[in-house]
């Protein structure tokens, strides 16, 4: 059984990923080409959920196929147990590790999602989740849908980068620092850092609809995936329990605003999210019992943030309906979110 609790006390994430990039000029040997690559994700994972959202917002469905791993995994790898025969129908592999080992036979690190795989060779290209979504916005532009939003506009990149840096270190990863802490002191410090950052974000969002500028950007995508998991998982499982998200009025309204925006809530699978954390983290939850709550209906209640300046897609348009084969299963989210 894998251990997730940091025995040394403070949890430190290994942030060394496969830095190969898929670019318009193909400088790393992998040029942007429609139908060549496959994005492998798990709906349970917040880092992968970012890639799902960005791909959908930009309308890259026809250029970049997607494969879904199941919500749980063992010590070796994420698996394709949602597919017929437990095999990805395009890559024809049962475990994501097969794509990693195809390129790096002695790959020594964890097998992570999201990952982009080169279909012709079956080899992983990158698992650098932070750079991956930026490249979908900037390198894949010829394949964006008409009306796609500018998630990483030139004029706002420095500010987006600054906000993302603090959101990642204090919030996205901060919940893990709390949940995986191996000592009281490490937990206390992580908890305080997390809620200090949440208070900072709340103050920032009190008078503006989005984190940076007047439209949705990469910064909102990155914060949203943590917020979607906060009450179902992080509040209890990771002991981030000063307040539920639903008890922080500004952040709860902001989260509902994004959730009700096409491309966000329709990618969230609360059932798989809870199964992943409560089953995989057996050293934190040894019974493997998955909680029934919280009530999801509140995600669809009015948020009132239309009163603030800002339009979700600026001069663009929302994405169309989710493709049938990519829909979150019925009953895995609030009724009416498609």
UniProtKB/TrEMBL annotation:
<protein>
    <submittedName>
        <fullName>Glutathionyl-hydroquinone reductase</fullName>
    </submittedName>
</protein>
<dbReference type="GO" id="GO:0004364">
    <property type="term" value="F:glutathione transferase activity"/>
</dbReference>
<feature type="site" description="Lowers pKa of active site Cys">
    <location>
        <position position="234"/>
    </location>
</feature>
<dbReference type="GO" id="GO:0005737">
    <property type="term" value="C:cytoplasm"/>
</dbReference>
<dbReference type="Pfam" id="PF13410">
    <property type="entry name" value="GST_C_2"/>
</dbReference>
<dbReference type="InterPro" id="IPR036282">
    <property type="entry name" value="Glutathione-S-Trfase_C_sf"/>
</dbReference>
<feature type="site" description="Lowers pKa of active site Cys">
    <location>
        <position position="277"/>
    </location>
</feature>
<dbReference type="InterPro" id="IPR016639">
    <property type="entry name" value="GST_Omega/GSH"/>
</dbReference>
<dbReference type="InterPro" id="IPR036249">
    <property type="entry name" value="Thioredoxin-like_sf"/>
</dbReference>
<feature type="binding site">
    <location>
        <position position="78"/>
    </location>
    <ligand>
        <name>glutathione</name>
    </ligand>
</feature>
<feature type="region of interest" description="Disordered">
    <location>
        <begin position="307"/>
        <end position="338"/>
    </location>
</feature>
<feature type="active site" description="Proton donor/acceptor">
    <location>
        <position position="176"/>
    </location>
</feature>
<feature type="domain" description="GST C-terminal">
    <location>
        <begin position="153"/>
        <end position="280"/>
    </location>
</feature>
<dbReference type="InterPro" id="IPR010987">
    <property type="entry name" value="Glutathione-S-Trfase_C-like"/>
</dbReference>
<feature type="active site" description="Nucleophile">
    <location>
        <position position="45"/>
    </location>
</feature>
<dbReference type="InterPro" id="IPR040079">
    <property type="entry name" value="Glutathione_S-Trfase"/>
</dbReference>
<dbReference type="InterPro" id="IPR047047">
    <property type="entry name" value="GST_Omega-like_C"/>
</dbReference>
